[in-house]
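Customer escalation, tier 2.

The customer says the design service returned an amino acid string that "doesn't look like it belongs to this structure." They asked us to rerun it and document both sides in this ticket. The original structure tokens are below, unchanged.
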């Protein structure tokens, strides 16, 4: 049997877009799903169960039972086959399947044999990943157990939606708080003016001339009118327009340079170690704790880092530099990803900047899936950011991303 190589769903880009829309922190989901992974293992009677999400480069085990949460290259995963369709995917004995017999988890500890996966399918028809159960012995699942695993998979997707709804609600609450501050500020001026003018009239008493009193009354009327106009504006505001706005900033979770640095090191150091690449993250001193929304940052930077590691050879280096520039009204996050990798041609750079990059092999022979940098460009454009690329063949690559935060 000829082994299949890196199957890619027909709706891959739409799948990745929806996964990025959830804006998950893959390292912070285990506690949300621990009960369901344990339940899946108990139902199937297997030693291990995993909830795996698959992005452009990596399979993330975001929750696990009987096994530590981990990440592996997408091309090494079994679940890449599960997300190809709407059917369950079963391998009775991984050691007898050409696609998997040489994988590290089959040849070495834990010497896995049995695999059964259920795609995690959203109502839009996108498979974000898979719920899978595994064992070191060959097994067979009854139809009743299969149906129960499908129910658990549906519940996992429902919980994804709940987490996103809560996150969006937090964002709306923060937006309301900001609007309250703005309203309080806008009202304070006119109300203060009314009170001040009334005080002047009161203090002058009988000394007030009629024309002066009329002028005071006109000023009071104008201040009162501005308050009424502000009230009308608030009451008539069409919040549905904000919902349909192309740029939707999610304030549900905030980062700082320091927390973003720690998160990147936590998530991508494993990939660097696997490739024997030195991975560092630095940030601008003095701006470490300034908060900004996390909106799609892990998806944008993560894809750039994974791409840089993929195209950097053994004993090379990948560095991420983070900076935050501020003025009176705006903040701009600057992300520079520098690698000592194989570099890019001018044609390849143009493909990326035009949003239609194709996949190529990494320095370790890693197979690509073609959408990582295309997704990055799409997400950056969506939040009105910018990206530039400086590179020469065999001289490394420098990505510079600027994002309004």
């Amino acid at each position: 049997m000829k082994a299949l190589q890196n199957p890619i769903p027909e709706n891959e880009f739409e799948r990745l877009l929806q996964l990025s829309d959830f804006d998950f922190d893959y390292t912070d989901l285990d506690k949300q799903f621990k009960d369901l992974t344990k339940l899946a293992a108990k139902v199937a009677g297997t030693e291990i169960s995993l909830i795996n999400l698959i992005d452009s480069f990596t399979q993330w085990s975001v929750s696990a039972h009987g096994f530590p949460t981990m990440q592996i290259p997408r091309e090494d995963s079994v679940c890449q086959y599960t997300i190809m369709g709407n059917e369950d995917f079963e391998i009775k004995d991984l050691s007898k399947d050409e696609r998997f017999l040489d994988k590290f988890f089959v040849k070495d500890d834990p010497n896995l044999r049995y695999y059964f996966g259920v795609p995690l399918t959203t109502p839009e028809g996108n498979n974000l990943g898979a719920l899978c159960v595994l064992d070191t012995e060959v097994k067979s699942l009854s139809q009743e157990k299969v149906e129960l695993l499908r129910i658990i998979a549906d519940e996992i997707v429902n919980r994804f939606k709940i987490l996103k709804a809560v996150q969006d609600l937090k964002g709306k609450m923060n937006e309301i708080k900001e609007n309250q501050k703005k309203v309080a500020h806008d009202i304070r001026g006119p109300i203060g003016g009314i009170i001040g003018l009334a005080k002047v009239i009161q203090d002058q008493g009988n000394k007030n001339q009629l024309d002066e009193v009329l002028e005071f009354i006109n000023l009071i009327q104008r201040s009162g009118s501005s308050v009424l106009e502000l009230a009308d504006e608030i009451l008539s505001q069409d919040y549905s327009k904000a919902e349909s706005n192309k740029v939707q900033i999610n304030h549900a979770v905030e980062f700082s340079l320091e927390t973003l640095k720690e998160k990147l090191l936590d998530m991508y150091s494993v990939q660097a170690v696997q490739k024997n690449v030195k991975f560092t993250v630095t940030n601008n001193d003095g701006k470490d704790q300034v908060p900004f929304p996390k909106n799609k940052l892990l998806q944008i930077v993560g894809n750039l880092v994974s791409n840089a590691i993929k195209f950097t050879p053994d004993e090379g280096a990948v560095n991420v530099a983070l900076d935050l520039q501020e003025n009176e009204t705006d903040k701009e996050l600057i992300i520079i990803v520098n690698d000592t990798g194989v570099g890019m041609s001018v044609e390849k750079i143009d493909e990326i900047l035009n949003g239609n990059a194709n996949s190529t092999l990494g320095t370790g022979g890693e197979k690509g899936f073609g959408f990582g940098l295309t997704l990055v460009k799409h997400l950056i454009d969506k939040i009105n950011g910018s990206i530039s690329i400086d590179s020469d063949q065999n001289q490394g690559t420098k990505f510079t991303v600027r994002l309004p935060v």
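Tier 2 assessment: The sequence is consistent with the input. The chain has a mean pLDDT of 83. The chain has eleven helices and 13 strands. Sent an explanation to the customer and offered a walkthrough call.
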